[in-house]
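To illustrate the input format used throughout this study, we show a single complete record. The first block contains the structure-token representation of the backbone; no residue identities are included at this stage. The design step must infer an amino acid for every position from geometry alone.
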């Protein structure tokens, strides 16, 4: 698990495709203390496993599933990525619960400089927009952000200068594609409330009426 609070940036230093798979070698721009082989790290929001490391550099293998749902397959040498190591139970949860399992892409359609922040508007397919609500949490390239407004196809977020400076979102321009992870809790709630084949949901209008939720 992660928090969506980016620890620092890394740069792509090598791209290999052994056996058709994708392996990225990344050099962090900060010290990786107590780094261990096999630990999880979020690379621009995608949870990956460290398969080799030396100093500030480390390598991760990217599965075809992760390539299909994220923009990692489009990375080039020296491209920047956001990095966050896995959450420890003793850490503060300053962002929100992030699994590192990217749901899909969104495209930046508008960027406005406003007083004290930058407003970004993204478009995303309706199948993912259903999990986006005003003032809810969303993860963009691994960054925990709060949704300002949304409709059936777009949502907006405000990014403070510190976040823009310390992460890759500050470089994004209209047309750029980002990795999106929608709110984990919303997806679980939907699953629990969706009846399986031949069964009915435990929550219906009759139950809501009995509980006093309907006038």
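Output of the design step:
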């Amino acid at each position: 698990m992660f928090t969506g609070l980016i620890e620092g940036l890394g740069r792509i230093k090598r791209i290999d495709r052994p056996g058709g798979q994708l392996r990225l070698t990344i050099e962090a721009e900060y010290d990786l203390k107590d780094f261990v082989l096999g630990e999880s790290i979020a690379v621009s929001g995608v949870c990956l496993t460290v398969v080799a490391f030396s100093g500030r550099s480390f390598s991760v293998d990217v599965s075809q599933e992760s390539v299909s749902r994220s923009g990692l397959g489009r990375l080039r040498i020296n491209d920047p990525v956001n990095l966050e190591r896995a959450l420890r139970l003793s850490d503060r949860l300053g962002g929100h619960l992030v699994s590192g399992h990217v749901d899909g892409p969104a495209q930046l359609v508008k960027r406005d400089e406003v007083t004290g922040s930058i407003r970004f508007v993204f478009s995303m397919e309706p199948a993912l927009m259903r999990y986006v609500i005003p003032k809810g949490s969303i993860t963009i390239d691994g960054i925990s952000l709060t949704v300002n407004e949304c409709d059936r196809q777009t949502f907006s977020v405000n990014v403070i200068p510190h976040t823009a400076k310390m992460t890759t979102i500050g470089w994004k321009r209209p047309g750029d594609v980002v990795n999106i992870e929608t709110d984990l809790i919303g997806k679980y709630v939907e699953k629990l409330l969706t009846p399986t084949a031949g069964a009915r949901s435990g929550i219906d209008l009759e139950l809501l009426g009995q509980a006093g939720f309907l006038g």
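Structural context for interpreting the output: The helical segments are 64-69, 126-129, 161-166, 184-193, 205-210. The domain at 8-85 is CATH 2.40.30.20 (Elongation Factor Tu (Ef-tu); domain 3).
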